[in-house]
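User: Structure please.
Assistant: Input sequence and predicted structure:
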Amino acid sequence: MSKPPVTQAPGRKVQVQAMFNDIALRYDLLNHLLSMGIDKGWRRKLVKLMARDNPARILDLATGTADLAIAASAIHPQHITGTDIAEEMLAIGKEKVKKLGLEGMITLLKADSENLPFADAEFDAAMVAFGVRNYENLPNGLKEMCRVLKPGSHAFILEFSKPKKFPVKQLFGFYSRFILPLIGRMVSKNSTAYTYLPESVAAFPQDEVFLQLMREAGFSKAEFKCLSFGITNLYIGQK
């Protein structure tokens, strides 16, 4: 008898794309609900720091529903390009951009962060909020981010972290392990998306380990700032 064909599990990129397409309609609600609105302040912090460079052309990677791109419009750049692999997330982002009358400033398109369709040194700044954790090949994604930046310009990366100090460490651990997945499942109707989140945070290289990956990707300088008692880090890299 012939052996049944071996089927490979879909890669991380395919899984992430399907998951975010599935929860797209409820993503914004859950994002702000589960972070208790703190995520808006994190984005404002990123944009405030980015504004010091007065960037004309900004790239927003893993833009999702365009929250960060919309926040960055406040500093009046010439243009913002947002990319993502999840079409349903992009569709919602485009509707938000249209309602706000920002179509002339913000363009959203489907593109892979690890294989960007842009020329070298095309952007004055790059930013990503809670997206690099989902890359299938993180070093490749960081190299692409660096490649499309102009020399001397900056990348700004918001990503969840693991608090280290009592009692935030214990409270955040309990919340991310039990409360977050429960609410996520109830609202999104997706059984895996909000279990995946704490698991991906736990597996993500953080702090100095991530800074070293940025340097290896081509950033000449890299630093990070802890936000909200270490729940989130803002990484800043200069090409």
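Confidence is low (pLDDT under 50) at residues 1-9.
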